[in-house]
Give the backbone structure.
Amino acid sequence: MVKNPEFRIVSLLSSATEIACELGLIGNLVGISHECDYPAEVRGLPVVSRTKINPRESAQLIHHSVQDRVRQGLSIYEVDLEALEKLKPDLILTQNQCDVCAVSLSDVERAVQHITQKNTAICSLFPFALDDLCKDFRKLGEMTGRQKEAEDLVTRFWIKLNQVNARAGTHLNYRPKVLALEWLDPPIVAGSWLPELITLAGGDPLIVDGPKPFQKTTWKEIQGLTPDFVLVFPCGWSMERTLEEMNSPSLQREFQNLPVSVQSHIFACDGNEYFNRPGPRIANSLEILGAILWPEKFPQEVKQYQNKSYKKY
């Protein structure tokens, strides 16, 4: 594929939308998913997907709904076939890492079967570790003739990660133990690229200690740990939505049962904008971690992100 001002892209993945925009393809986007909200310029584009799960339900009910659909072999997302057919995309962006995170590859393949007007290509991303994010930057760059822009993005991404790592300190006498929760009911410990970010920020991730699968745990097990920090960023939730859930009576009790030394170091973070979204702003997520773990080393980041993207519980 080559650069073409008439090349039409539909993105069914919020992180892919951000990558495409970073590669200079914002003018080629003609449709987005229901979760694509950044940069602001994409928000007026036609939305071609929707969720079958009520996002306003409690964490427990959402988890049960998702598990029920997975057991039945059903998707939790739906592609608007009529809208997709009208948009006539040359390329559709999706992912095949997690069927819960966004519209899956199988959903897209079924949808494309209904589009007969042209030969539509599919670019499926597979973000797991930090290196995989860069592979995805390059893959999208290759499919759209933006290889140079993709290499520039990879360079900027790693420069930012390395700068934060250097400021946090690479040979620390003290490395705070960090428990990162990607879901609350049941509690699920963050995996994939998130333990890598904690390590780069000068912390030691608990339970999941590297780019490994997310791990379900229990509040009883968590109570037996002595983390220096507890970070909460449920997948797809804003900081405000996370705090709302954390303040529910059942979860308040769980947090109050943690050691007193831990209770003053619990933070709600914006998972939707940053931590859960495997795109260029994962580097910003590392800045947020630096601000939380080492506020004295990251005063500008504290000013930039505190009470906007993270907040003490």
